[in-house]
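Entry 14. Ran structure prediction on the chain below.
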Amino acid sequence: MIREKVTARPLLDWFLSEYLVLGLTVALFATVAPLTPGLATTASLLKILSYMLPLLVVAIGMTLVMITGGIDLSVTSIIALTSVLGAKLMSSDGQGAPLLAGVLLMLLVGALLGAVNGAMVTLLRLPSFIVTLASMMFLSGLAIWTTQSKNIYHLPGAFLLLGQRLPVALAMTVAVGLSADLILRRTVYGRWLYAVGQNATAAHISGVPVGVITFVAYVASGFCAALASIMLTARLETGSPVLGHEILLDIIGATVVGGTSLFGGKGKVAWTCFGVLFLTVLDNALNLMNLSEFAITIIKGGMILLAAVLDSTRRRYTSQAL
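Output, structure tokens:
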């Protein structure tokens, strides 16, 4: 009996560890690399890093919202709409506005759209799922209507560097990640954010401005989505009305896989980084195996479901232990 407890304890500690997903990523890479020789090449690793940077930026914003117990389904539509608006402003076909004006417009629109979501959730007390689902549909349709389903080309060369120069994109992502991590760990806002997610009623009674805290989280989510749009638009050299529509599953999935709780009150930037890395490595490996898009979606969906089950199991175990 004693031996069984000694053996089981390290497994339990590993299961409850915040580095579980990072360990699974290493195990996945070590297992799949021999089966897909192209996975461990320098080109493949750079591709993984390049793909995960904009995904990580928008997932960080999603993390802040999910810590409050909410969700933001509109992020990919914000990416698309800010992409076409910024591209229209900067395009040489439209006699091109300065680079700074285009970038600021994209960030401002993203933050404003996040503010609209936050206002409806906090002031009207509507479920975040319904609010952001409606926003997703409306903004997606608006982006397509604005461009008549046409892409926008001829963007300034200086703008393209924001997505095509890996050090530049990496610097922007690191800045967002460190800022969010600092806010969560070192500021009053961060402590209040967790308090809102754990129990909004108790937080309100304790004097926490629940509405303001939640509102700011949605503004940050919209801002992060716009920044990711800048990186994606610059990398693809195109303002697209459907940009990012295929990565909503990855954004939510990476956040959940990383360990941010679907029930609120729990999440870290580092966890989201681990989740993004895991899904990016998995996606790249599956593509190198020449699997169909449907098979890849099924596997990724299964991983996200498994992560949700693990989150619920760990939550129940932790509650019983306390």
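Confidence is low (pLDDT under 50) at residues 1-6. Will compare against last week's run tomorrow.
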